[in-house]
Amino acid sequence: MTIAHLQTTPTLKNALKPAGFKIDKTSIITATILINLLALALPIMTLQIYDRIIPNQGTGTLSILIFGVTLAVILEACLRLCRARMFAWSGASYDHQMSSNVIQKLLYSDNSKLSNLSVGEYLHQIGAISKMKDFYNGNLTSILTEILFIPLFFGFIIYIGGILAIIPATILILVGLTSLINGKYIRQKLKDREIEDDKRFNFLIEVLEGIHTIKSFALEKTFTRRYEFLEEKSTLKNHDVTQDTSSIYNTNTIFSNIMVLSIISVGAYLTLQGYLTTGALIATLLLSSRMMQPVQRAIMLWVKYQDYKITKHHIEQLLDTPQREYTNNQSAVKPNPDGRLELENLSYTHNGYQTPQLRDINLNLKRGDICLISGDSHSGKTTLLHLIAGILPTQNGTIKIDNEYITTYQPDKFMRHVGYIPSAPVIFRGTIRENITSFFQITEELARDIASHLKIDRDVAKLPSGYDTFLHGDSTDSLPIDLLQRITIARILAAKPRLILFDDADRKLDEEGYNLFYKLLAQLKGKATCIIVSNDQNIQNLADYHYKITNQKLVKHYQNEANQNVQSYRELQL
């Protein structure tokens, strides 16, 4: 069997640049070159005005020169705006595509091999992707191009100012050395801030998940104080990082001021001695300031690079998440599912445990069979359903659905073969319409049909926004849990899977919801293959076969006159 990992790129290095993402380097480099060439216009004009036009009183030449320089300044400003727009668009595009790739990696990941990161840490790492865009949006290319102009500017300074060029050269070396030293110190402080931020994010997620419990025990003030303590530590670390970053920026500003002061002082003396003209002094000052701009940009990018290295390590960990494996023989997948299930020597051991929870499981079901699986608490009933549903990866043994290995089906096709209904509602952030249609992967007509059987349409009609009512997918949703569970059931069944897994799906239903669910389940008898895990006697009576998990194995039991009671119950209750 040929196995192929779902990876969009072969290496992590390439994965940091999403497939299809590219920037127009030619335009960025061209714009940067033109910006730097146009920046020479002002120093050259100053040199001409003070050394030639004023002494010779060439007013006609002055007007032409001013017009030309004004045009050059306007063109330079337009080019800068266009380049900034390219940076912003490329950065937003990179952020979007990279975030989508990371989310896809997590969604297609092997759950049993996921790292032990908390939800807060995952959210923090995904949110940090925006810190990487400055190194992929063309900004780095622009800075490197500008750095290549430093020798050109310096050459003009030597040509115009002569010995005065020693001052900007000395300042340039001092700025570079200072920034390299400070950059190493700030890296450790960035790591410390990451640790504290992760703790704070984790605490926030835990509080939001258990907000009702916290309020029921009146623990709001206690948890507020705990958050204040974490916020204080995070703020102090952030203060250290901000202080060091500001220190680097202020140091560069001080060096720039020292350079200006030194050039003016030394240049004035050389001018009085006749070694330098006034125009040459002003032009040297302008060129020196212009030469420092790419250096300062490079230094600030160097500071960001320290944060980038930490973020890059986190993103590489996310992109290196072990992926689920799928076979390549998609052509063998039948478009019309039958619901046949074959389990052969299936075993599973939870990550970190040595004793298997399931061992040598064998089961064969044909279309229309209803199988009841029972067992003690933690015996592995839900684990078995998760394996069949593809939530957990197969370790040993095989699972075949409709005569094809479970790894044959891609997720978007798998939902039409197998439907797993959990014991508690699973609601995604979005409208009710988006939830029941699996975000429009299922036609709304099919979803509405199932919703009408479960009387969801009746209850939704009472809401102000109807099917457009927005759900957050957490404890803040104000809808009854019975309705949320019926929405979950409708979403699963709307895909018309032929193998349906019921994992105590009636547990969160009220009396009416239970009757509607039972009626729908009874109607599916003979039409779809069902595996039922339930403590409800009426639902158990629907089963054709009864299996029990004992000592990690699936043992077959005889049927207890269950189906003889089904019709009488349906007539009585429904």
Describe the structure using short key phrases.
about 575 residues, disordered N terminus, Rossmann fold, four-stranded antiparallel beta sheet, single chain, 2 domains
Structure notes:
The chain has 574 residues and is α/β, with parallel strands linked by helices. It folds into two domains: 308 residues, ABC transporter type 1, transmembrane domain (ABC transporter transmembrane region fold, Up-down Bundle); 244 residues, Rossmann fold. It is 58% helix and 11% strand. It is built from 20 helices and 14 strands. The protein has a six-stranded mixed β-sheet, sandwiched between helices. Helix 2 packs antiparallel against helix 4. The longest helix is centred in the middle third of the chain and has 53 residues.
Structural shape: elongated
The CATH topology of the largest domain, please?
ABC transporter transmembrane region fold
Number of helices: 20
- Strands of the widest sheet, in order across it, are 8-11-12-5-13-14
Total strand segments: 14
Structural class: alpha/beta
Count up the domains: 2
Task: Tell me the span between the first and last alpha carbons.
Answer: 49 Å
Helix content: 55-70%
**Poorly predicted runs of 5 or more residues:** 1-11, 564-574
**Mean pLDDT level:** 82
The biggest sheet, with number of strands, parallel, antiparallel or mixed sense and barrel status, is:
6 strands, mixed
Radius of gyration (CA) equals 35 Å
Q: What is the CATH superfamily of the largest domain?
A: ABC transporter type 1, transmembrane domain
Under the CATH scheme, which class of the largest domain?
Answer: Mainly Alpha
Strand content: 5-15%
